Structures are given as C-alpha cells and as structure tokens.
Amino acid sequence: MKAGIFLTLVSLLGLSAAQPHRHRRFHNKPRALVTEVEIVTVTAPLVVIEVFGTDTITFTEGVPQIPAPTSTEAPVSFPPPPPPPPPPPPTTTTPPSTSLPPVVIPPPAPTSSESPPPPPPLPAPTTFSSIQAPPPPPPLSVPEPTFAPAPSIAPAPSTGPVSTGNGYGISYNPYNDDGTCKDANSVSRDIDSLKEYTMIRIYGVDCDQLNTVIPAVKSHDGMKLFLGINDVNSAASEAQQIVDAVKKYFGGDWSRIDTVSVGNEAVRTGAASIGQVIAGMRAARGVLQGGGFTGPVVTVDTIETFLNPDGSGIQLCKESDYNAANCHAFFDTSGYYNKGSEAGDFVTMQVGRFKQGCGDRRTVITESGWPHSSSFPLDVFNTGPVPDESNHIAAISSLKEAFVGNKSDLVLFSAFNDMWKKDFSDTKGTEKFWGIFGAQ
C-alpha cells in the first residue's frame, strides 16, 4: 500500500518537473489557500527533488518532510491546474435595431504600384458667420374647417345721412329783391345752385320757408339745415312749427337738422335783452326736445356782445350749447386786417378770444364773408377795407383755408345779394352786396 502511494507521488512530482519554467510562478496561486496538509510516511531511498526552482522537498528514509502549516483544517488534493480559458472575442456593442439599412464597408482599394493621389484639401474651418440655420420645416397641411354659411343679414339702416358737398355751410334768405317771399320753385332753384355746400343756414320761419326750404334741401342727399327762430318773444310757437315740419318732411328724423338758433344779433341790435334771449332759448329748447330733437340750441350774436365789458354777455354763452357768433373782418377797426386775404387770420384770432371768454368748446362762425360792392363811392374806403370783387374773392378763399380742418364750423355769408336789406350807419353801404353767387 505504501509502495503504491509512493509511486503515485513520484509520478506527480515527475509531471511537475516536466512543466515549463519560464514564469517561475505558481499557476495555481490564485486557487484556494491550503489550510491542512497530512504527512504520509513511506519507506524509500532518500530522494531530493527540486520543484519550481527554489522550493525543495526532502524525503528522509523514504518519507518527504514538508513543513506543516499551523492550520488544522481538512486536507485538500492538488488537481492539475486547468488550462487558461481562451480570450473572449472582442465585444462589439450593437445598438438596438431601428430598421436602419446595414452598413456596407467597401473593400480595400487594389494595390497599385503608382503613388496614390493626394488627399482632397480639407474644407476651410467653419466660422460662426458662415453657419446657417436649417430651413424651417414645411408648414403642416391642415384642412380648412368648413362651416355652414351664415344667414344673410340686411345692413342696419344708417342713423343719419352721408355728408356730401364741400363740408362748409352757407347762409340763405328766401326773399325777392323787394322783400316779398320767394315761391317754392324759386327756392328750389336757389338750393340747387348751392349743392356744393354741406349745410344751409336760414334765420326764421316766416315766408313759409320751412315748407319751401326743407323740401328743397331734402332732395340733396346729405345736405343739412341750420334752422333759426328770429323772434325770441315767440320762440315756443316757432319751435313748434319746426317740430311739425320735421315730422312732415323727415318723418320725425332729426338727423338732417344740425342746430337750431334763437335770435340773430338780437342783443347787439337792441331787438331783445339778454334776459329775453335766454328765456326764448329755454322755451324753444323745451318744445324741441319734446318733439324729439336732441341737438344743440344756441343764440347767435357778435363776439363783442358775448364779451361785453360788464360781463353780462357770458350768460348767453352759458345758455348756448356751443359758442356761435357772426364775425366779419371787413368791420374790424384795428387797421390790421384791411385786405380780403387776411380774413381767415382775423377770424382765427377772434375764435381764440371767443373760446377764452366763453369756454374752450366747439365754436362755430355762423356768418363770415366780404362785400364785393357798396352804395358809397370807393374813395370813402381809402384808409380801410375796400368792398370790391378782388377782396371778396380773396376773403372767401382765405376763410375756407382757415377752416379746412373743421369745415362744419364755418358758415359763409351769404349765398346771394340781399337787395331787400337796408343799410345802417355802421354797414358802410355794403349790406346788400355780400352774395357769393351774385344777384338772383
């Protein structure tokens, strides 16, 4: 038994001696630590075997003496070390398939004895200024929603006439040269000749003018009326006539009536006191409003009357819904406005005074013009404004230019000559000759 064990050990030692000694390290060093070794005694001649160079095992009297470890754990056998595993193949990380086409690697170019062509030049380095943003994606094609067609709706009726004409107003009196009343046909012809103007101003209800002027104006789309009550002491009754006429010709629609005035220079001429004019305005306003009129009610006088020294004229301003005055450069006594071409400057200056005294609100010049003749010889006017044709034409042009931005605030005086009028001491023989369209 001992001999068999010995032979086995010798065989193992022979196998160990036959291993290459290039690395002189224990190939089994990484294995588990031997914690107990059993010493077996056999009878054999002394054999000295060198194992792994510096490690020597000595057998005395046939038994090899191997230093005993200090551990007392169970012995383990020494199987031959397994061959090292083959190196793993190179790992290639393959991303998940995304249905992309396989990458095709072209075969190497055939070897040629000729020198290869030089590589293409490298592109110039990209600078920030040469970087261009990618084009925007094309717009999405979204089908337009379809809707059922809306029901047809008729346009709402207009709340008032569309303004026509040149924007300015002009004053008109329906009298013949002898002071008698013009008939409806004559009035109609007069209004037809004024169709370039947007508003017609009349002064009263006498001569049946509500029944002659209103129908003539109505026939011109958009033309408006500036109506008047001449006698302040009968303001209520005249106001009622206006209400009735509007109902008759306009069906109660007041959109064609711009303003109603009560009195024309009544205080300046002495025809009424300030108190009487105010009372007349209040009476007329009550009747007009009762008839559906919501527009402005004013009194018309000269600026000097409104701004009289004792301040009483301011009451007329307060009672009026806006500032309204007659203003003629021809009657200026300052000597600064002697030419018709200066009429616009004069009126503009007076409007500033008017607003300063009566309030900065809408201000309408209800009469302004220039006479083209006089019953006096012209040498009387050597030191002041001259009533001639050239000054007349220049004045009308100057006034229009001054009010070009607010045309509805100017009423030119007058449409035709008023041969029925009488002169006063301060009219200088010109009262009949203010007509823009000459004698009719």
UniProtKB/TrEMBL annotation:
Compositionally biased tracts (Pro residues): 77-93, 103-124, 133-154
Keyword annotations: Hydrolase, Signal
Signal peptide (from-to): 1-18
Region Disordered, residue ranges: 63-162
The UniProt record lists the keyword Cell membrane: no
Main localization (coarse): other
Entry superkingdom: Eukaryota
PANTHER family: FAMILY 17 GLUCOSIDASE SCW10-RELATED, GLUCAN 1,3-BETA-GLUCOSIDASE
Entry similarity comment: Belongs to the glycosyl hydrolase 17 family.
Protein name per UniProt: Soluble cell wall protein
Organism, scientific name: Phyllosticta capitalensis
